[in-house]
C-alpha cells in the first residue's frame, strides 16, 4: 500500500512516525554499544584474573604436579577465551554499532530533505489559496460598491430635482465601479483556476512523490535493522568454534590430572633412601651397684614421681580502647556550619570550605568567559554554529555562580560570627550544638531592608522544658514593657517560640537576658520568644527609658 494515496492528508503523523523509526534505530544502537561494553569489561576482568593466578616464579621452581599443570593450561585457555570476547566486542562495535550510527545520520539527512520538500509544497499551495481568497474578497467588495453606485444612479435619474451634472457624475461612477467589478471577477476566476490546478498537482503529484520517498526510506530502515540483527548474531556465532576449542582444551586439561603420577612425584621429590630405624637395645647401668635382692634379679628403678611442667597460662592483654556495644563509638553529628567544633578548628574548617568554593567559582567564571567568547565567534561567523544554542549553558553557569557566591557569603558570615557563636547556646544542654545568633544589621537601603537575616536559629534545637515550660504556666500575665516591630519573618516552630511575620507589631513582656531572645506577646494574647536581632524594640519611658534595639 502506498503512503502517497492512502495517507495523502497525514503529513504530521508521517513526520512523527519517521522520527520514531530513527529513534528506535538509535535505541538499538545504544543497546549494541552497552552490550559490547559488557564484553570489553568481561574480557578485561578475565585477563586480570588470569594474570593474578598465573605463576610468577621460574619454570624450575614450579611444581610438576599434573593438577598444577592442568590448572595453568586452563588459565591459558581462559586467556584465549577472553581474547575471543574482545573479538566479539570489536566486531560488534565496527560491523553493528558503527554501521547503525552512520546509517542513522544518513536517515536524518534524507528525512529532513523530504520533509522540507513537503513543507515547501504546502507553503506554495497555501500561498496560492491566499491569492485566490484575496481576489475573491476583492471581487465581493467591488460588486457591493457597484451595487451601491447603481442604486445611487437610479435614485438620481428618477429624481426630477437632480441636475444633469449630478446624473452624469453618478453614471460615470457607476461605469467605473462596474468596470472594476468586471476586472475583479476576471482576476478571481483566474486565481481560482490557478489554485485548483496547483491543488490537483499538490495532492496527486507532489505529495504522493514525497510520501513515496518517505515510505522507501522507512522500509530501508526496517531492512537495515533486520540485517544488523543478523550481524549481531553472526558475530557471536563466528567465535563459537574457537570458544568451543578453548572449552575442549579445559576439558582435556582436566582429564590430564593423574593422582598416581602426582603421588609418585611426591615420593620422588622427598624420598631419603634410608632404612627405617630398628629397636633400641636395653642398656644396664646397674652392674656396679650392690644388690639387696637376688643377683639374678634385675632391678630397675621405679619412677617415684613425675614432675610435670607447669602449664603455661596465656594472659590476655586488656584492650586499650573500650568499644561500644555494636562497634566503635559513634562520632558527634557534623553540622553544616561546624558549630560543634572549637572556635579555631571551626574557623579553619570554614576557611578551607571557602577556599574550595572559591576555586569552584573561578572554574565557573572561566567557563562563562569561554562560552561568551564562543558565542561572539558564532555571532561573527554564523556558519560555525548557532549562538543561541550556547545560551542555556551560559544561563546554567550563571546560576551555578550565584549559588557558589551565596554559599561563600554564608560561610564568610559564619567566620565573622565565630567568636561569639561558640559562646551562645539556645535552650540546650552543654553537649548540644551551639546556636548561631542572628547578626543582621539595619540599613536605610530599601533593597537591603527586607533581606533574610544572615543567621536564622536552628529549628532542630529545642529549649529545655524546665527553663520555659514553667514560665508559661503562670496564671497572671506579665506586664507590657514596650513594643517591637518584626524586621524579618520567624517560623516559631520550636516549643516556646512565637511565630511572627515581617512588619508585625508585638508587645514586649520580658527583655533580652543576654541569650539573644526576647519574650513577646501578640495582640491575640499568644506569647513566646523571638530573636532579638529580628525585631526593632522600643521600650516604654516608665521602664528603662526609650531605647531602641536593632
Automatic annotation (TrEMBL):
Gene3D superfamilies: 6.10.140.470, Arfaptin homology (AH) domain/BAR domain, SH3 Domains. Residues 340-417 form the REM-1 domain. Residues 291-313, 425-476 are annotated as: Disordered. The keyword Repeat does not apply. CDD domains: HR1_CIP4_FNBP1L. Residues 1-262 form the F-BAR domain. Residues 425-438 have a biased composition (Low complexity). SMART domains: FCH, SH3. Residues 347-381 form a coiled coil. Keywords: Cell membrane, Coiled coil, Cytoplasm, Cytoskeleton, Endocytosis, Lipid-binding, Membrane, SH3 domain. Residues 291-302 have a biased composition (Polar residues). GO terms for biological process: endocytosis; signal transduction. Residues 447-466 have a biased composition (Basic and acidic residues). Residues 467-476 have a biased composition (Acidic residues). GO terms for cellular component: cell cortex; cytoskeleton; plasma membrane. The keyword Membrane applies. It is found in: Cell membrane; Cytoplasm, Cell cortex; Cytoplasm, Cytoskeleton. Belongs to the FNBP1 family. This is Formin binding protein 1-like.
